Amino acid sequence: MGAKVSKQLERRKALSIQRKLLTGLQKNSGNEFPGSDYRPPNRKNWMQDLNPQKLHINQIVWPGTHDSATNKIGIPCITRPFAQCQSISIYNQLVKGTRVLDIRVQEDRRVCHGILKTYNVDVVINDIKKFLGETQSEIIILEIRTEFGHQDPPDFDKYLVDQLGEFLIHQDDRMFEKTVTDLLPKRVICVWKPRKSPPPKPGGPLWSAGYLKDNWIDTDLPSTKFNSNLKHLTEQQAVSKRRFFYRVENTVTPQADNPVVCVKPVTKRIHNYARLFIAQCHSNGCADRLQIFSTDFIDEDFVDSCVGLTYARVEGKT
C-alpha cells in the first residue's frame, strides 16, 4: 500500500513539474509563427478560401481529431468519460474545420474505442456525405481501422467503395504534389487499415496503412508527449519530399495505474499548447515537416492554428 501511495506522489510531482515546463516555455517563447494571426473567414470552407487552384496537398496542415466518432460512446456519466475523445458529431467536426478523421470499427461495423462501442459506421459515412454535399472544395482524409482486439468487418473494403466511390481519390504517389483543384470533384482520401484482411491494392480507390504514419507516445505527461512529438517530427522528411501523411497528436492518454483515468481532464494537460507546439516547430526548423495535427475535443483555435500555417505556406511566408 505504501509503495502505491509513494508512486502516486511521484507521478503528481512529475505532472506538476511538466506543467510548469510547458507554461514556462510558452511564457518565454510565445505562440507566434508565420500565419499565427490568420483566422479563416469560414471554417466550413477554409480550403476554398485559400484558393484551391493554388493550394497544394503537400502544403496543407491538416487539423484532425483523435478517436473522432466517440461523441456518444458508452453509457453517459458511467463509461463514456473513459473513452470519449470528441463531444460533437462527425458532421459538426467537419463544419468546425476538421479535415482528418480517425475512425475505429469492430466486426459488426460499429464504431468502438477499446471494448466500448457506439453507433454503426453508417452514421459516420452519412455525416461525411452530408458535409461533402454542402461544400465544393474541401478534401477529407478518412482513416478507418479495425480496433485492436477486434476482427475486421466482412467485405468492409467493398462497403467503403460502395458508399464513397464517387468521392474517392485513388491511391497515387503523384497526388501529393497536386493542387486541390487538380483532384476535384474527388474529395476523400480513404485510408483503410484492416488487421487481417488483405490491404488495399496500389492504384485502387482505397489507400493502404503505409500512407498514414505516426509515432504514438502512450503517456499522460504533457511535456514528455510534447517533446517526443517534436523529436519524432524532426526525424521526418519535409512534406515536399514525403509520399505519405505523417501525423502528430496533441493528446495525452490516461494510464491505468493513475487515479485520473477519464479522458477529458487528462488530455486538457496538453490541449492548450497546440500553438506553442507549432511555434516550437518553427523555431526548431522543422515546421516544414508538420502535416497532420490532431487533437481530442477539437476547438476553433486549434483549427485556426493549422489553417494559419497553411495560409503562410501558400503565401510563401514560411
What keyword list fits this structure?
single chain; about 325 residues; alpha/beta; TIM Barrel; 4-stranded parallel β-sheet; 3-stranded parallel β-sheet; 10 helices; about 15% strand; globular
What's the short story on this structure?
With 318 residues, the chain is α/β, with parallel strands linked by helices.
Please explain how this structure is put together.
The protein has a single domain (26-314), classed as TIM Barrel, CATH 3.20.20. It starts with a helix and ends with a helix. It has 318 residues and is of the alpha/beta class. The protein has helices at 2-29, 46-49, 90-96, 121-134, 156-164, 180-183, 222-234, 263-271, 274-283, 300-314, and strands at 62-65, 100-105, 110-113, 116-120, 140-146, 188-193, 212-214, 245-250, 292-295. Strands 1-9-8-7 form a 4-stranded parallel β-sheet. It has 10 helices and 9 strands. This is Phosphatidylinositol-specific phospholipase C X domain-containing protein. Residues 48-192 form the Phosphatidylinositol-specific phospholipase C X domain. InterPro entries: PI-PLC_domain (IPR051057), PLC-like_Pdiesterase_TIM-brl (IPR017946), PLipase_C_PInositol-sp_X_dom (IPR000909). GO terms for molecular function: phosphoric diester hydrolase activity.
Determine the CATH superfamily: Phosphatidylinositol (PI) phosphodiesterase
Percent of residues in helices comes to 25-40%
The helix/strand class is alpha/beta
Tell me which CATH architecture applies here. Answer: Alpha-Beta Barrel
**Regarding CATH, which class?**
Alpha Beta
Number of domains: 1
The beta-strand count equals 9
Q: Tell me the distance between the termini.
A: 54 Å
